[in-house]
Amino acid sequence: MIFDFADSRGGQHVRAFLGLNESGNSAWQGKLVCDDFSGYKACFELGVTEAGCLAHARRKFHELWANHGSQVGEQALKFFGEFYEIEREVRELDPDERKRLRQLRSRPVADALRQWLSGQRQRVPEGSATARAIDYSLKRWQALTRFIDDGDLPADNNWVENQIRPIALGRNNWLFAGSLRAGQRAAAIMSLMHSARLNGHEPHAYLKDVLERLPTQPASRIAELLPHRWQAAL
Fold first, then answer.
1. Residue 191 in contact with residue 1, Cβ under 8 Å?
2. Which residues of 12-25 are buried (b: 16+ CB within 10 A; e: fewer)?
3. Are 1 and 161 spatial neighbours (Cβ–Cβ below 8 Å)?
4. Are residues 62 and 141 in the same domain?
5. By residue range, what is the domain housing residue 43?
6. pLDDT band for position 171 (50/70/90)?
7. Which residues contact 208 (CB under 8 A, 6 or more apart)?
8. Rounded to whole angstroms, how far apart are CA atoms 72 and 223?
9. Residue 181 CA to chain centroid, in angstroms?
10. Do 58 and 89 belong to one domain?
11. Is there a domain that residue 161 lies in?
């Protein structure tokens, strides 16, 4: 897992991190699962494929239902519930079988939801919270449903959000990193700690061992201390 730090929310930071350039001769042209943050938009003109986050779309309707008791929100949540029930069933399958079942079962749900949203949109006033929730999904429909035809794609980016939640919560307490360089160093340390945890290591034990071995570790073997290669000293 890699964290990055930038001094603004400008889209140029996203493109630099992904190795994208304006000429189109980019090193990476994969699929990016994301919300509707404007900083991602230029990436899609440079060869990156947009994959929407189903959870972000669902969240709009949950807010309608939770805050206003909206019947539109409640019904939309039932559709999203069908998506997620299917996702629970296909989670452990191989990508080809996951794709097959998504096309068989999720595609009809998606078609029904789109038709229902289009009908509801005609009944609500412009600028209303309900209109904004519906527009979020309809205007990004292709991206939101791209996971159905790609067994390697997740339906949302909840896994990533769960990984970064401690940092997002901490950020409210830290208030500032001190400088751009300090923020970049913090991102590097967080990358190391989260990668260690994802590789099954206890972060404190991993870091303690690495710091003790660093002074005598040959530069040619420094990669042995990376989380996915590290083995505790005997």
1. yes
2. eebbeebebeeeee
3. no
4. yes
5. 11-51
6. low
7. none
8. 54
9. 25
10. yes
11. no
User: What was the pLDDT predicted at 52?
Assistant: 95
Neighbours of 177 (CB within 10 A): 16
The pLDDT tens digits for 61-113 are 999 999 999 999 999 999 999 999 999 999 999 999 999 999 999 999 999 99
Positive or negative: CA dihedral 43, 49, 55, 59: positive
How much is the pTM?
A: 0.72
User: Which range is least confidently modeled, 22-26, 139-143, 149-153?
Assistant: 22-26
Q: What is the pLDDT of residue 24?
A: 53
Query: Is 154 within a domain?
Result: no
How far is residue 230's CA from residue 234's CA, in Å, rounded to a whole number?
12
Whether 194 is in a domain gets the answer no
Exposed/middle/buried for residue 163 (C-beta within 10 Å: 0-12, 13-18, 19+): middle
Q: Taking 70 as the threshold, does the pLDDT of residue 234 lie above it? A: no
How many domains does one find in the chain?
2
Place of tokens 């083995």: 231
Residue 15 and residue 37 in one domain: yes
DSSP 8-state class, residue 52? E
Shared domain check, 103 and 134? yes
* H/E stretch holding 136: helix 129-138
